[in-house]
Each structure stands twice: as structure tokens, then as C-alpha cells.
């Protein structure tokens, strides 16, 4: 196989996946043996029976952008609320679309360094997590 100047799509299957949250990545090997890895991609395997925040990340060098990864067991729209350590609401957005399985939302909110709490909720459930920025 040679280099290509068109986009190529590949797929593969994990024949024996573990149940729950799993992380996958791709390894690309060049003709000279050099290789690189893709970013890790979270995949939820099996029936989604929970609603939980799995990761909150970003930093002050990222122009206030950070991401929230979560496993969701509904199709109801969500609200995201961020409060500081004193309980003051810093961010509030409703009507966030999500689907059963792994989800990721990106928020653009300038935060100073400190301790914060993120709350994701729908009409039926609410989850929260403390994070450091």
C-alpha cells in the first residue's frame, strides 16, 4: 500500500470488549517504522444504565474552553450549571442535546484558577462533580 492523497476510512471491531467505559486509540505506522498515536476516545460498551460525569478538563491557557465528558442514559435535554466554591453560579446553560452513551460538551467560559462544581441535570436526574481549574 502506498501513500494516498485522498481520505481513507477504516474500521475495526473489538471482538471481546469489556463492559462499561473503555478508551480506544489508533496507532499509525509509517513506512520508516515511525509511529504516532491518536487521541484517546472514550466508548461506553453495553447497555447504558447510568448518568455520570467521567471527565472535566481544560486549563487557563486554553482561552477558557474546557470539556465535560459524561455517560448518559436518556435523550432528554440537559442543563449545565457551574458554581464556584462559594456556591455562586458562574455558568448556566439549558437545552443541551445529548444521547444515550458517551457524550462530550465544550463550554466557553473564562474561569480564574480555583475550585468549581459542575452540575448536569435533566427533568429526572442530577449529577455533579468538583473540578479544579
Task: Tell me what the structure shows.
With 133 residues, the chain is an all-beta fold. It has a domain of 85 residues: Immunoglobulin-like (Sandwich), CATH 2.60.40. It is built from no helices and 11 strands. It has a 4-stranded antiparallel β-sheet, with no helix packed on it. It has a 3-stranded antiparallel β-sheet with strand order 5-6-9, with no helix packed on it. A hairpin with a 4-residue loop joins strand 7 and strand 8. The mean pLDDT is 84.
What count of helical segments does DSSP give? 0
What structural class results from the helix and strand content? mainly beta
Name of the CATH first level of the domain at 48-132: Mainly Beta
Question: How do the strands line up in the largest sheet?
Answer: 8-7-10-11
Strand content: over 45%
CATH architectural group of the domain at 48-132: Sandwich
Gross morphology is globular
Helix content: under 10%
Distance between the termini: 46 Å
Seen as an oligomer or otherwise, the chain set is single chain
CATH T-level fold name of the domain at 48-132:
Immunoglobulin-like
Average per-residue pLDDT, rounded, comes to 84
Order of helices and strands: EEEEEEEEEEE
DSSP, total strands: 11
Radius of gyration over all CA atoms, rounded: 18 Å
Main sheet properties: 4 strands, antiparallel
Query: Low-confidence runs (pLDDT<50, min 5 residues)?
Result: none
Amino acid at each position: 500500500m502506498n501513500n494516498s492523497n485522498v481520505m481513507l476510512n477504516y474500521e475495526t471491531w473489538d471482538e471481546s470488549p469489556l463492559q462499561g467505559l473503555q478508551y480506544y486509540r489508533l496507532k499509525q505506522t509509517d513506512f520508516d517504522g515511525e509511529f504516532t498515536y491518536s487521541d484517546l476516545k472514550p466508548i461506553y460498551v453495553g447497555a447504558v444504565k447510568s448518568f455520570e460525569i467521567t471527565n472535566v478538563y481544560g486549563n487557563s491557557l486554553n482561552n477558557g474552553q474546557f470539556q465535560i465528558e459524561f455517560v448518559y442514559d436518556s435523550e432528554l435535554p440537559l442543563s449545565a450549571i457551574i458554581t464556584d466554591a462559594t456556591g455562586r453560579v458562574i455558568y448556566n446553560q439549558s437545552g443541551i442535546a445529548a444521547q444515550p452513551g458517551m457524550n462530550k460538551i465544550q463550554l466557553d467560559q473564562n474561569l480564574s484558577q480555583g475550585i468549581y462544581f459542575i452540575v448536569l441535570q435533566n427533568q429526572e436526574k442530577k449529577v455533579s462533580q468538583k473540578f479544579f481549574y
